[in-house]
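Risk register update: the risk of archive-format incompatibility is retired. Evidence:
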Amino acid sequence: MRSLIRGVAVIRRPEEGVIPKADVIIESRRYAAVIEGGGAEGEFDRVIEGEGRLLVPGLVNAHTHLAMTLFRGLADDLPLMRWLEEKIWPAERKLTGEDVYWFSLLGLVEMIRCGTTAFADMYFFMEEVAAAVEEAKLRALLSYGIIATSEERIDSELKRAEAFARRWDGKAEGRIRAALSPHAPYTCGPEVWRQAAQLARELKIPIHTHLAETAEEVERFTAQHGKSPALWLEGLGVFAVPVLAAHCVHLSEKDMEILAAHGVTAVHCPSSNAKLACGIAPVAELLAAGVNVALGTDGAGSAGDLDMLEEMRWAALLGKLKAGDPEAVPAPQALSLATWRGAQALGGLKEWGTIEEGKRADGVLLSLEAAHLQPGHSPLSDLVYAAHSSDVVGVFVDGRPLLLEGELLTIDEERVRAECRARARKYR
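Archived output:
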């Protein structure tokens, strides 16, 4: 299949700005050429007109719990621990694999329509999540969420996580990769972490976890262990493997130095952390310290939605507020958090994450015609501060269109919405 996106504005990489007009050629699932000014020649199996449109790298949601679309609106306006202990954990005891499959598909519909092409997910019934991802054709880093507060659960939880990782890593034509996910330092003891780190080294896969989400969590943990969660994990050897650490709201300067020294990615989840009043992650400080920072929505049960365009705007605005500096987290940097830095977090930057010849053709096509994107002084700034998911008209993964001219091509959205409405009744 040889495709052409003709006469489109292009952001190859956020730091390079916008190419006002180019012809973009896709061959064998990869970007074959970006011809500035246009002028592509030859025969094409598919031609997409790009005038009045912007092509950007696919957005990467580096931390979510996909099937928690089920809990959207079920438990709002509560602090984190009450939200978990009184509402979410009791509801999760009712989950079935079929529920997780259908609500994962619902989340995938939402993510595609918002321009997300890759994501990192940890949850339960992950076989069903993986099946939904394979069907929808997105790219994903998937892991079973290990919770082992007692020694009796350690062996069974680790075996379940390992079995999933061994079965699914590299599947779906390489679009699905696996990780190991001890839920957090406060839900998994040291033996879980030691074994998980050893297994991750053996399988050559990363660890995906939660870290320093609330001040109460960090204070309680530090009082109990005599060191911060980040310092504690370092002492257990966890950071000897690649780690995605979600939230990272309450970090000391020493914690940031530790993350930077070990190449840990901090995944900023601004809207979820704001809604649960957890605080604002120190994004500008983390980046200045040399920490890779990516963006995630968290689950829709806490964030409300899975809209990475909205999350990118939150990251830029709250980053400025946190730093007390309007120059902090400028638009190109905010876009980098949502694109190539997410690809780096998921271990795929050599293969995808920017629009470059030879890389996998993951991309998002947005219309620039809406009133809220006029008069168009800076399409990159407009993308970060003004664009909506309704502007997304095309989404591609490996050069395969998942959404084209607003039409979903890999998921029956009407059926998914009907099935999910019916299944949600038992949770009310």
